[in-house]
């Protein structure tokens, strides 16, 4: 089996991973919730209106303030919706798994033993370049 074939197999395994399945289910739930989609669309529309108003040469500060308030309120409503919260949590969990997979591949490509590569510590660079392949 070539490396490319193995990569394709890895892609298939990733799509079977629990965190991937949970993310896809959460995404579907968000997409199928018409009320939530309306709130997101309204937020995007008001954000666009705010951007347009801010960039006008003759700015109406009162209108900008009102639009900004509406945008923040819509943002809070949308981002606190249980389905969007579940989606964001699922995205975080998937990203954590995927970043670990990428870390193993990167470290293996620099000569580390794939069987002993540990999950990187949260928070980025540890300062010990001997255990990192990220800076280049």
Produce a short descriptive summary.
The chain has 136 residues and is an all-alpha fold. It is built from 5 helices and no strands.
Helix content: over 70%
- The average pLDDT score comes to 90
Largest sheet: none
Given as residue ranges, the uncertain stretches (5+ residues, pLDDT < 50) are: none
Shape: elongated
Round the Cα radius of gyration to an integer and report it. 22 Å
Q: How many strands appear in the DSSP assignment?
A: 0
Q: Oligomeric form of this entry?
A: single chain
Report the end-to-end length measured between terminal Cα atoms: 29 Å
Question: Would you tell me the structural class of the helices and strands?
Answer: mainly alpha
Treating each run of at least 4 consecutive H or I residues as one helix, how many helices? Answer: 5
Elements, N to C (H/E): HHHHH
How much strand content do the residues show? Answer: under 5%
Descriptive terms for the model:
136 residues; mainly alpha; 5 helices; 72% helix; elongated
Descriptive notes:
This protein has 136 residues and is mostly helical. It is 72% helix and 0% strand. The chain has five helices and no strands. The protein has helices spanning 3-16, 18-32, 34-55, 61-79, 82-109. Helix 2 (18-32) packs antiparallel against helix 5 and helix 3 packs antiparallel against helix 4. The chain starts with a helix and ends in a 27-residue tail after the last helix. The mean pLDDT is 90.
């Amino acid at each position: 089996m070539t490396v490319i074939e193995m990569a394709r197999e890895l892609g298939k395994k990733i799509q079977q991973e629990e965190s991937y399945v949970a993310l896809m289910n959460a995404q579907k739930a968000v997409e199928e919730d018409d009320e939530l989609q309306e709130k997101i669309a309204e937020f995007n529309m008001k954000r666009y209106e705010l951007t347009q108003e801010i960039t006008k040469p003759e700015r109406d500060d009162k209108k900008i303030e009102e639009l900004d308030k509406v945008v923040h309120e819509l943002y809070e409503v949308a981002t606190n919706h249980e389905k969007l919260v579940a989606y964001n949590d699922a995205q975080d969990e998937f990203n954590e798994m995927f970043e670990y997979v990428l870390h193993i591949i990167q470290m293996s490509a620099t000569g580390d033993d794939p069987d002993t590569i540990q999950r990187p510590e949260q928070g980025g660079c540890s300062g010990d370049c001997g255990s990192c392949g990220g800076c280049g």
